[in-house]
Amino acid sequence: MSLKSPVITVMTKAAGKAARHLKRDFGEVENLQVSRKGPADFVSNADLKAEKILREELSHARPNFGFLMEESGASEGDDTLQRRWIVDPLDGTTNFLHGLPHFAISLALEERGEIVAAVVYDPIKDEMFTAEKGNGTFLNDRRLRVSSRRRMDEAIFATGIPFKGLEGHERFLDEVREVMAVSAGVRRWGTASLDLAYVAAGRFDGFWEWGLQPWDYSAGALLVREAGGYISEIGGRSLSSKSPNLVCANTNLHRELDELLRKSRKA
Ligand code: 2AM
Ligand code: CA
Ligand code: CA
Ligand code: CA
């Protein structure tokens, strides 16, 4: 059983409230207004409404904290510990708009540049993933551990298809080919926060994706770490850039997966 801290309670409550609206909109996707931010980048009024609710709830509970939100950008708070919320109100918009029941709300709390609390909520499956630095990862009230598989040929890996151009796709297909050849399979579900949550839960043995944004991975990265997993840039360096090429896995398989990805890029 987990004893929820005040900050996790704030986060799960905000996620729950935004999720009720998302679920309602999910039942009526044909009535949503959708616009395009980029070539394959969509936003709907469901994203915007969920973001507004999250901003209201979180700033009501913690008036001094700043924000980094996918749809409305960054705003500074006046908190002495430089705390800010990193928010993706709807991760998996494309799934959502196609009636595919696999999307999430992703909330992270950053303190002096470090992620200290995380919530990823899948409203359709009613799965609330939470983590706090030093206190482990939970799914609803159950403690999570990454998988303990040691053999690549028994492991399943998730990935995401890059959005940026043909060159990226070619290199990505090489990577998939390499990983497929030695593993038990590759999955692509289109919701990075849940891919990371599933690594934390031991459902996937690892995950990699190029060019994610802070709101896609900040919460999920803490879920993975606090569940005993290892996460880095492809090439082994610690996650440092704003938009990393990210690879994570249980500690048995991380190096092998990372080396495979590196090798396929050099080839
Ligand atoms: P989103 O649904 O919040 O945009 C899947 O590979 C991940 O990439 C998802 O977390 C998704 O988040 C994000 N994503 C999807 N389409 C994108 C695009 N065109 N540009 C950048 N990120 C995208
Ligand atoms: Ca988006
Ligand atoms: Ca996202
Ligand atoms: Ca989003």
Automatic annotation (TrEMBL):
Pfam families: Inositol_P. It catalyses: a myo-inositol phosphate + H2O = myo-inositol + phosphate. InterPro entries: IMPase, Inositol_monoP_metal-BS, Inositol_monophosphatase-like, Inositol_monophosphatase_SuhB. SUPFAM superfamilies: Carbohydrate phosphatase. Its EC number is 3.1.3.25. Its cofactor is Mg(2+). Keywords: Hydrolase, Magnesium, Metal-binding. PANTHER family: INOSITOL MONOPHOSPHATASE, INOSITOL-1-MONOPHOSPHATASE-RELATED. Belongs to the inositol monophosphatase superfamily. This is Inositol-1-monophosphatase. It comes from Fodinicurvata halophila.
